[in-house]
Design goal:
Number of strands: 6
Radius of gyration: 26 Å
Number of helices: 25
CATH superfamily of the domain at 107-153: Homeodomain-like
CATH architecture of the domain at 107-153: Orthogonal Bundle
Mean pLDDT: 47
Distance between the termini: 78 Å
Strand content: 5-15%
Shape: elongated
GO cellular component, one term: nucleus
Keywords: Activator, DNA-binding, Nucleus, Repeat, Transcription, Transcription regulation
Pfam families: Myb_DNA-binding
Structural class: mainly alpha
Organism: Brassica campestris (Field mustard)
CATH class of the domain at 107-153: Mainly Alpha
Domain HTH myb-type: 44-96, 97-151
Strand order of the largest sheet: 3-4-5-6
Largest sheet: 4 strands, antiparallel
Low-confidence stretches: 1-37, 39-44, 164-370, 379-467
Length: 467
Amino acid sequence: MVEREMSYTMVTDESDDAMYSSIYNESPSAADNIGSGCTSRGKGSVLKKGPWTSTEDGILIDYVKRHGEGNWNTVQKHTSLARCGKSCRLRWANHLRPNLKKGAFSKEEEQLIVEMHARMGNKWAQMAEHLPGRTDNEIKNYWNTRIKRRQRAGLPLYPPGTHVEDLHWSQEYHPSTSNVTDRRRHQDILQLGNSKANVLFDDLTFANVLFEDLNFATSLLPVASDISDMLGTGASSYMSPILPSHSNIRQAFQSPEHFQNAAPQKNPRSCSISDHPMYGNNHRTDVMIPESHHTFTDGMVPTSKPLFGAVKLELPSFQYSETSGFDQWTTPSTPQSDLLDSVDTYIQSPPPLEIDEPDCFSSCDTGLLDMLLHEAKIKASAKHSFSSTTCITNGTQNVPRGGETHIVTSGAVVKTEEMDEVWEPKRADVIRPDVLLESSWQDQQSRFGIVRDSSSLSDALSLLLGG
DNA sequence: AAGGGGTGCAACCGCTGCGGG
DNA sequence: TCCCGCAGCGGTTGCACCCCT
């Protein structure tokens, strides 16, 4: 112990000796935290690990004032701070840099995090860019805590009615409802065969997966496998972001059969991002995260993979990037607005036919926890009224529907083979992504044109809607 | 009051990408 | 082209605090 502390004092700095002389005496745990994480350089000192002391903070702040950020490995050289560059950078970024916002996340921040996570997955650093004063570490911790909470509560990862601004399906494939030509163009695109689709989507890696080969069953296996993994592990939330929202789906969810015991209220699952103070009104998005489904109750999230629906896309040049998109959200009247608005006209999802009630955010207004509690209540009451029939086979999700098997791949429903099994629409089917997609698309005049068997789709839809 | 479990946060670790030599 | 160092990112861990029994 003493030797270790002595080794610290051997680290000298021509300008900061006086200031630093007390560092290591100040930290009783320092000696216990001498570690191997960062390799020491230069002065033969042993790098310290563990909690930072105020004196160390002062040293680092002073260093940054003098030399600016960056060159973190030189901190150890220019000061007596026995911390590796990594540690310094982290300490500065997470605790010392100016304008850091401390304390609990606000409701707006919470909501934004949810939306962003639905959109981009575990891209904490990117999220942090859109939350001024917040660090990626903070956001990550918050999210992990939230996951645990929701897991315990048996709730899906995303609150009910979360509207995601521009998940790739809505962003890339949803035409503007106000532009029939564009709509048709999207339909044409999605109905295209292999070659044209490749040309049109050649910048979209995910679309490439979808259309690179019309032998979907083969080319989409990895994707489908992911889906089945998600479903198999109950990771419903992973599916959620890919789902185009539609009022019909919402209505189906809220049929008395499903929520007969739920407390009466207006569309309790509708939370629109457009209501978010940080979003512009132009950014109503209609990608709804379906609320909890008991077949996908758990909020388990593979840690290292982004959400399926948040697959990072290589956006075409005419589209704004993720960053710019969020800039747009947070600063709706930026100079880019005009451009972005015009882009929106092309890429934004159609506005909901059923407008969210003004108080749709009411449940959100009380914070996420309240939302979760509310959702748990509803879920508890509705849980017994439906059953699961999800069929997962060999890495692909084969959805028996009207005697056909459809491989569901993030929105593309591909008929592959005949099946004898008769599909009965149960609740679990209703909330299945494929069904949701189909119902949504069909209702919107097949504008997306992916589903190829419209007759069976109609049947399913009519059953779905109780027809 | 004590202890055991849960929770949240800070920090570390390992990997990856990038740029310079 | 390869290697090396650096910065950054995301996942994981450790620990202090809190709450409940």
